[in-house]
Design a protein that fits this description.
Blueprint: H1 3-16, H2 23-27, H3 32-37, E1 41-47, H4 48-52, H5 55-67, E2 70-76, H6 78-86, E3 92-95, H7 98-106, E4 110-125, H8 139-149, E5 153-155, H9 161-172, E6 182-184, H10 189-199, E7 202-206, H11 207-213, E8 220-223, E9 235-243, H12 253-263, H13 266-274, E10 276-277, E11 280-281, E12 284-285
Parallel strand pairs: 1-2, 1-3, 5-6, 5-7
Antiparallel strand pairs: 3-9, 4-7, 4-8, 4-9, 4-12, 10-11
Length: about 300
């Protein structure tokens, strides 16, 4: 490779997209982007499911070795993760509630959003299935049956992505949750599953957390999501975005973009696809596509025409 070509590739890797993994192998020398962030710590606020399932612990060593940087992953509900970022306490956010993500971007706090991966939600409950919802093809019909029967239902009640999805499902079902049969825990998914087990209750869970916790709870999937040909309304997409350095100048934007570039790269996406618990795939990569969705970068429904 000529000197001029080396300089061009180094500039491309270090300037245009700082997070392109593998540039140091192309140039044969240390990537300037990697050197610039070495020794630094990235603060990632993320939904509890990505940490509780063990996914991040499995894939982060590759990023930390590549960039010589560390990742401090703070697991919160989606609402709390976005609030931390609004307050300037995060560099990058990985969550799963598109409506809340859109609000975050519209208010100027988030930039460079990418679709990352997906799994789905499932309605789980006791094997005895007192509301008779097993195998229903409609999640809203299942919730209506639970409400009509007054069967115990445990809600996270914590403004997480799962809680947001649950509230949207009740609204779509035109049912009002409440009363003695409905309990909000204000906790993460793992604890909500434990409470549901103790009370013989139903709850909504992301598939990944349920699979990772299944051996510790006495619950079964009663209504599947689209991964197992269930209703599409139970789809659970994850997104990632950098905190806007124009709003919070303390945000480590260079390291955030390195991380986004890495986790949406073919290698990291393959690692996400390969991560399994008890032989089951928990997350399905979505960042690498022959037909990219450019709407992923902006709030849903946004267009330049809408700003005129």
């Amino acid at each position: 490779m000529s000197t001029q070509r080396r300089q061009f590739v180094a500039a491309l890797c270090g300037g245009a997209v700082t997070g392109v993994a593998g540039c140091s192998q192309v140039t044969g020398s240390e990537d300037p982007a990697q050197a610039a962030v070495a020794g630094e710590t990235l603060t990632l606020t993320t939904t509890t499911s990505t940490l509780d399932t063990g996914l991040l612990d499995a894939i982060h060593p590759d990023f930390e070795e590549l960039y010589g940087a560390s990742v401090d992953a703070v697991a919160q509900g989606t609402g709390a993760a976005l609030e931390s970022a609004r307050n300037g306490d995060s560099d990058v956010v990985m969550v799963h509630a598109r409506g809340l993500e859109d609000e975050f971007m519209r208010n100027g706090f988030g930039v460079n959003r990418r679709n990352l991966m997906f799994n789905d939600f499932v309605i789980v409950g006791p094997e005895s299935d007192p509301a008779g919802i097993e195998g229903m093809g409609s999640a809203t019909d299942a919730l209506t049956a639970i409400a009509d029967a007054g069967t115990p239902f445990v809600s996270r009640g914590d403004n997480s992505g799962t809680h947001t999805k649950e509230l949207n499902l009740w609204k779509a079902a035109e049912a009002e949750p409440g009363g003695d049969w409905y309990q909000e825990t204000g906790t993460g998914m793992g604890e909500a599953l434990n409470v549901a087990t103790q009370q013989g209750a139903y709850t909504l869970s992301d598939r990944g957390t349920f699979i990772s916790q299944r051996s510790e709870v006495d619950l079964v999937i009663q209504v599947d999501g689209p991964i197992e040909d269930g209703p599409e309304i139970l789809a659970n997409p994850y997104g990632i975005m950098a905190v806007n350095p124009g709003v919070h100048d303390n945000a480590n934007y260079d390291l955030a973009m390195a991380y986004i570039g890495w986790i949406t790269s073919p290698g990291a996406q393959s690692a996400i696809a390969g991560y399994r618990v008890d032989g089951e795939q928990l997350f399905f990569p979505e960042a690498v596509s022959e037909d990219p969705n450019f709407q992923q970068y902006v709030p849903e429904g946004w267009s330049s025409d809408a700003e005129e």
